[in-house]
Structure formats: C-alpha cells, structure tokens
Predict the 3D structure of the following.
Amino acid sequence: HVQLVESGGGSVQVGGTLRLSCTASGYTYSTNALAWFRQRPGKSREGIAAIDTQSGSTYYAGSVKLRFAISLDSAKRTVYLDMNSLSPEDTAVHYCAADLRSWYPLTAAEYNIWGQGTQVTVS
C-alpha cells in the first residue's frame, strides 16, 4: 500500500524558515494532486498548499500565500513545503495528503491518503 512520510518539522524562532518534505513509498503510484494541511491545537485540519502533479499548478490558503511555497520532485516522489516568515500562528501538526477525489485541492475530506504528520513549533 502507499505510504506518505513527512519530515523536516521542528522548532524555529519567529521569522525563521523550515522546509517540510513528504515522500511517497509503496507500489508504483500516481496521484493527481499532493497537498499540505495543518492542524493547530483545538482547530480543524486546514488546507494550506496543494499542487496539481500534471500541470504543476499550485494553490494556497490566504494565510500562507507569499510566505509558503509547495514544490514537487517527481523523480524522488517527494513534495516539499518551504515555509518562510514563520509566526507562532503557524505552530501546528503538518500533514501531507495525496489522491484527490474531486477538485477541491485544499479540502481535507477530498483526500484519501495521509501521512502521519510532523510538528512545527514557532516561538
């Protein structure tokens, strides 16, 4: 079965940067989209960035646009999230998702496959 494994989370100071990675493993797999979500304490899971794996089109939540960038290395089966100008409001568990059912790329319920999450703490 397909697994998504996130890495790169950690603690960072306000204004700092982090790069998250998510690598797909398992049998040969092709997904129409890959996305990053986050879940802050006491909040529902929020879509923050997604990429169409065919066209390369990207989608961002307003709260991270111009600060975060999603990118894809198809050869490595890895999607990245570059996060800049981090603030305490970005503190959350960050999840990678794949296999979009319908074209709402920042909607958690539309994804079938999830990683285990990686914690990002900004202070």
In short: Residues 3 and 25 are 5 Å apart (CA to CA). The two ends are 37 Å apart (CA to CA). The mean pLDDT is 94. The longest strand covers residues 92-100.
